[in-house]
Amino acid sequence: MSTTPTLKRPARAKGDRMTWWEAIYLPEIFRGLAITSRHFFSNMTGHILQLFGLGRNLQPAVTIQYPEVVRPLPERTRTLHRLTKREDGSPRCVACMMCESACPAFCIFITAGEHPDPTIEKYPVRFEIDLGLCVFCGYCVEACPEDAIRMDTGIVELSTYRREDLLLTIDQLLKLEPVDRTTPRSMHPIPPREGDGTWSPPGVEVPTHLRAGLTRLSGDPIAVGSDQPPSS
Ligand code: SF4
Ligand code: SF4
């Protein structure tokens, strides 16, 4: 005779049960308010003290007014990929497929071709990275025996209106240049280009080094997608 299996709810751990004190909610609400108020007043006190030149060792919380003000990146941040070049401008990549094999997201697509120079076996006819799949793990950079791929462009803002804009081609990857890694950049002009490309948000003084990062984008040598939404 077959028995029908019954599903049993897993028993809740003892610590998961609410005590009657928690179940009446009000004490927990006041506890939450007390924590929020403590942070609010300690931050405000810190800022007021620093306004008068005191409390230099305090570190009150600050809100960064992104995107008008962009926070410098940590030096070791992995940013958008680029392909490095030989002196003659051709890719250093020898299409060995090591990066493609190491990529856990399967987002590198390479087609190898015979190189005209007999001392170089292969070159990438096609080298594409699908940023929509990339997890920015950096394995491709680690796997490359030729130092042909790096993640030092400083580009971290990758949003786009079209899925296909996230597929970077070999030409786009070769055009990208390294920057001071602490200066964040965008794949697309931020904000959209105006006039000669220099721009600052109304009433906001953009630090010089960040302004350089922003205006650099406006020349559009590396823009790979559209900064406008597609017309429907
Ligand atoms: S960073 Fe990681 S996920 Fe992205 S292309 Fe390289 S190996 Fe693949
Ligand atoms: S980028 Fe480096 S690892 Fe990838 S195919 Fe080219 S040479 Fe090989």
Low-confidence stretches: 189-227
Overall SS class: alpha+beta
Helix fraction by DSSP (H/I, runs of at least 4) = 10-25%
CATH class value of the largest domain: Alpha Beta
User: How many structural domains in the coordinates?
Assistant: 2
Mean pLDDT: 78
- How far the N terminus sits from the C terminus, by CA atoms, comes to 63 Å
**Strand count:** 7
Find the CATH topology of the largest domain.
Alpha-Beta Plaits
Biggest sheet overview: 3 strands, antiparallel
> Any idea what the CATH architecture of the largest domain is?
2-Layer Sandwich
Question: What portion of residues belong to β-strands?
Answer: 5-15%
Element pattern in H and E: HHEHEEHEEEHEH
Shape: flat
Q: Can you describe what's shown?
A:
The chain has 232 residues and is α+β, with helices and mostly antiparallel strands. The chain folds into 2 domains: 41 residues, no CATH class; 137 residues, Alpha-Beta Plaits (2-Layer Sandwich). 25% of the residues lie in helices and 12% in strands. The chain contains 6 helices and 7 strands. The chain has a 3-stranded antiparallel beta sheet with strand order 2-3-6. The radius of gyration is 26 Å and the shape is flat. The termini are far apart. One iron/sulfur cluster binds next to α4.
